[in-house]
Amino acid sequence: MAAQYQESQVPPQDGKTVFITGANTGIGFDTARVLAEKGARVLLGCRDGPRAKAAMAAIRQRAPKANLKWIELDLTSLASVQSASEQVLAEGHLDLLINNAGVMVPPKTLTQDGFELQFGVNHLGHFALTGQLLPLLKQQPGARVVTVSSLAHRGGKIDFDDLQADHRYSRMKRYQMSKLANILFTLALSEKLTQAQCDLKAIACHPGGSNTELGRHLGPLKFLFLPLELIMNSSAEGALPTLRAATDPDATTGDYYGPAGWGEFARSAKRVAIDPAARKPELWERLWQASEALTGVNFRF
Ligand SMILES: NC(=O)c1ccc[n+]([C@@H]2O[C@H](COP(=O)([O-])OP(=O)(O)OC[C@H]3O[C@@H](n4cnc5c(N)ncnc54)[C@H](OP(=O)(O)O)[C@@H]3O)[C@@H](O)[C@H]2O)c1
Question: Domain limits of the chain?
């Protein structure tokens, strides 16, 4: 049996600059921690200053020389996305963008720009961020965009007739839709980069089931998930598919990584299959056009 992938297999990251959204807790935090321990300069895209600073202090406890910077980023606001992008562009160098931040099953809420929260934060904010950082990423040989999806993308559907849930809102269906959008975005981006003969790779991943703060909106339903916590990944284990997608020298554009254990629910990381229902270029293009129109961000390949 092949050895299980682990943190120690992440290659040295000296000289690399990484921007991770939602890096103050959960999977984003552990991804930031490992990449900083391996020598990368890590820019933490977080909306809350005290939480970002606490995360940086926790990373420095493990890696006193960690090279870290907080970039204020609230994905509910396209203005905030633009301002964060400008700060990252000013770095003049970016090897890796990790679109990790996410929200799951909140009560119906709109972003500052009027988008349904899960679609707005999980997909549209990251779409805009990636488009604005593309010029910098394209300059860097071997650069990657890694987007964190979920097992929940399976069975998801993009409700093109009601993108902002004006007419009906199901918390779980909207989460599934946003996570399917992460996959469709990665496949579309990968295809467009390949057509433009651009070296940049677009890769997706998912952390299986990981014990993080993601369930904060579950309310009393949280108790139903308690038995699962016994077999769930820790947040550090949940970060392994992201770390592998971000650094495995054998990864190619359009790949998808997830846990290696039964049902991709937990343990380690390996390349996994994308739901065939997501392999539909006409669907990628429809979502792409809608996302450009909604965010006003046009990608220049
Ligand atoms: N945990 C799982 O089992 C699981 C399974 C499948 C997929 N995922 C995916 O994994 C990713 C990370 O989730 P997690 O489990 O680590 O959850 P988490 O512990 O709740 O962390 C989510 C992160 O996203 C940030 N975030 C939320 N809304 C934001 C906004 N408007 N602007 C900027 N940042 C925002 C949070 O910041 P605050 O702390 O300020 O709220 C936090 O840093 C998500 O994309 C999630 O969909 C997780």
Answer: 7-292
Each residue's pLDDT, cut to its tens digit, for the chain (301 residues) gives 567 999 999 999 999 999 999 999 999 999 999 999 999 999 999 999 999 999 999 999 999 999 999 999 999 999 999 999 999 999 999 999 999 999 999 999 999 999 999 999 999 999 999 999 999 999 999 999 999 999 999 999 999 999 999 999 999 999 999 999 999 999 999 999 999 999 999 999 999 999 998 988 888 777 777 777 788 999 999 999 999 999 999 999 999 999 999 999 999 999 999 999 999 999 999 999 999 999 999 999 9
Domain over 7-292 is classified CATH 3.40.50.970: no
- Residue 246's nearest CA partner among 174, 145, 139 is 145
CA of 123 to the centre of ligand 1 (A): 12
18 vs 32: CA distance, rounded Å: 8
Q: In what order do the strands lie in the sheet with 270-271?
A: 67-72, 41-46, 17-21, 96-99, 144-148, 201-205, 256-258, 270-271
User: How far apart, in whole angstroms, are the C-alpha atoms of residue 211 and residue 160?
Assistant: 32
Substitution site in 25, 171, 183 for ligand 1 pocket (most atoms within 8 Å of beta carbon):
25
What number does the ligand 1 atom closest to the CA of 111 have? 31
Per the annotation, the verdict on 175 as an active-site residue is yes
User: In this structure, which amino acid lies at residue 278?
Assistant: A
Atom of ligand 1 nearest to the CA of 24: 43
